[in-house]
Amino acid sequence: MEAFERTIQLIGEDAFERLQQARVILFGVGGVGGWTAETLIRSGVGHLTLVDYDTVQESNLNRQLVATAGCIGEEKVSAMRRRLLEVIPTADIQTVQCEYNEQTYGQFDFSGYDLVIDAIDNVSSKVRLIHEATHSGTPLLSSMGAGRKVDVSQVRVSGFGKVAGCPLARAIRKKMKATGLYPQRKFPCVWSPEQVLNQSGQRAAKGTVAPIVGMFGMMLAGLALQILQNKEKEVDTASEKE
Fold first, then answer.
1. Separation CA 162–CA 188 (nearest Å)
2. How far apart are CA 3 and CA 242, in angstroms?
3. Annotation: CATH topology of 2-228
4. Beta strands 23-27 and 115-118: pairing type?
5. Which of 14, 27, 100, 118 has its CA 20 to 30 A from that of 34?
6. pLDDT truncated to tens, each residue of the chain (242 aa)?
7. In 97-177, where do the E strands start and end?
8. Rounded distance between C-alpha atoms, residue 242 and residue 238, angstroms
9. Cβ distance 183 to 134 under 8 Å?
10. Which helix H or strand E contains 58, and what residues bound it?
11. Which residues have CB under 8 Å from 118's CB, separation 6+?
């Protein structure tokens, strides 16, 4: 396929065929997940399931790939699917319009996928997803918090046990301890230790920008491509129960 000629030249036909056959499920197609989804499809992943409950809002325009002025109010999974098929019309893009939570998690069977990618930011949902995915036989990649960050050079990858200085990771650990929903096995995370201060010298209360969510999303996609080509990078994954 001419669209993937440059990719095949770099990784070879066997690796590319593995990407074409791969089945990936991605939770969250907002700031981080949108960039992940498009990078996977442009790289040759043949089957992608998108899970998100939200709609496109005007406040998403500053950072979310799925968001355009013309699709405000539309379901994010529908808008993302349309965009991806405009890029690669032959891709198999499935959508699930729902929130992954305590009521819906049972409808997802990860045994039918080669990889689970977590790009959601709700703590309870994230803890349940990490628990269920790591108890399955399917590899998991997870994004930690991209909010309140501006320096792309600080974005990195490690096991969840090594994530530090991330309020979302801290909240996840607290929730795991409260619920007993610990991960069964180690898993890589994309994260940043950066702490942005406001004009008063205090940690910034909120805010998210496109370069950071784009970096998080593309790093998740890059790790995914390594795994799907059987070339996964070793990461230091200390105990998740620390």
1. 10
2. 45
3. Rossmann fold (3.40.50)
4. parallel
5. 14
6. 799 999 999 999 999 999 999 999 999 999 999 999 999 999 999 999 999 999 999 999 999 999 999 999 999 999 999 999 999 999 999 999 999 999 999 999 999 999 999 999 999 999 999 999 999 989 999 999 999 999 999 999 999 999 998 999 999 999 999 999 999 999 999 999 998 877 666 676 678 999 999 999 999 999 999 999 986 554 544 444 44
7. 115-118, 140-143, 156-159
8. 8
9. yes
10. none
11. 27, 28, 126, 129, 130, 133, 140, 141, 142, 143
Encoded amino acid at 27, one letter = F
User: What type of residue is 212?
Assistant: I
* Angle of CA points 227, 222, 2, to nearest 5°: 95
- Cα distance between residue 29 and residue 36, in whole Å: 8
Amino acid 188 reads P
Q: Nearest Cα to 42, choosing from 9, 7, 69, 77?
A: 7
- Overall residue count recorded for the chain in this entry: 242
**For residue 105, what are the CA distances in angstroms to 80, 102, 108, 196?**
22, 6, 6, 34
CA gap 210, 214 in Å, rounded: 6
Strand 140-143 and strand 156-159: the pairing is: unpaired
d(CA 120, CA 98): 12
Q: Hey, what are 130's tokens?
A: 């990490």
- Please check whether residue 60 is in contact with residue 30, taking contact to mean a CB–CB distance below 8 angstroms: yes
* Amino acid letter for position 240: E
